[in-house]
Amino acid sequence: MTITVIRGDCFEVTQDWDDASVDLFIADPPYGGILKESWDATTSYDELAKMIERLLVPGGTAYVWGGVGKPRNRPFFRWLSRVEDVTSLHIHNLITWSKKRAYGKADNYLFTREECAMLVKGDKPKTFNIPLLEAKRGYAGYNPKYPAKSEFLRRTNVWTDVTELFKGKIHPAEKPSRLAEIMIETSSNKNDTVVDPFAGSGSTGIAAKKLGRECFLIERSDCQMHVGLE
């Protein structure tokens, strides 16, 4: 399938795109001044939600990453508290990515998580391919009347099996492509269209190429992308 890289602002790039033309969004927007990086400017989550709402097909899914922020600077959480009131998107789930490397201070618990909102346009997703782990469950199920449908454990909304990148990153906020793979495998089918409006190094494109999805990577900076995407 085709991986298309577009250099430009995602809100400007998509202005002329047809409504209801995207099956899946995977977005990791700037954190809103949380990091000391020039690209980490304030992001309008409201503007992002309107773009996603317009472009998603009915029942389409969007995964939007965000962090807890800092005191009196919680853009992601504030947005989540109102997104259902101002759009047709609903919060289908809130995923926690549990990392290995811990950060913290002497007066707090160590911090090892990052959040991702799973949003659906409408009441329920048009596509949800039940995600399974590689680990086998070892038992048939708690209730004999309702045995487990697979010998493998089903993925929960706390992801502990994907390790963050410790070296070799080509972007300071780069995530492992396996995260995008899980989202694409679960919330899209072959030949569906996937869009990453803040593509960075292009890890979503790597996952989409592997899984046979058409993918549009939009990135306004001239940052390096992985070999084979451009």
Structure description:
Strands 1-10-9-2-3-5-4-8 form an eight-stranded mixed beta sheet. A two-stranded antiparallel ribbon has the order 6-7. By secondary structure, it is α/β, with parallel strands linked by helices. It has six helices and ten strands; from the N terminus they run E-H-E-H-E-H-H-E-E-E-E-E-H-E-H-E. Helix 5 packs across helix 6. The model has no long low-confidence stretch (mean pLDDT 91).
Major sheet summary line: 8 strands, mixed
Between the first and last Cα atoms, what is the distance in angstroms? Answer: 14 Å
Determine the strand fraction and express it as a percent band.
25-35%
Mean pLDDT: 91
Number of helices: 6
Radius of gyration: 18 Å
Count of folded domains: 1
- The oligomeric status of these chains comes to single chain
CATH domain class name: Alpha Beta
- Which strand order does the major sheet show? 1-10-9-2-3-5-4-8
From the structure above, extract its key features:
single chain, 230 residues, alpha/beta, Rossmann fold, eight-stranded mixed beta sheet, two-stranded antiparallel ribbon, 10 strands, 30% strand, globular
What is the secondary structure topology, with strand pairs?
Layout: E1 3-7, H1 10-13, E2 22-27, H2 45-55, E3 56-66, H3 75-80, H4 83-86, E4 89-103, E5 111-121, E6 132-136, E7 152-154, E8 158-159, H5 177-187, E9 193-196, H6 203-211, E10 214-219
Short description:
Helix content is 20%, strand content 30%.
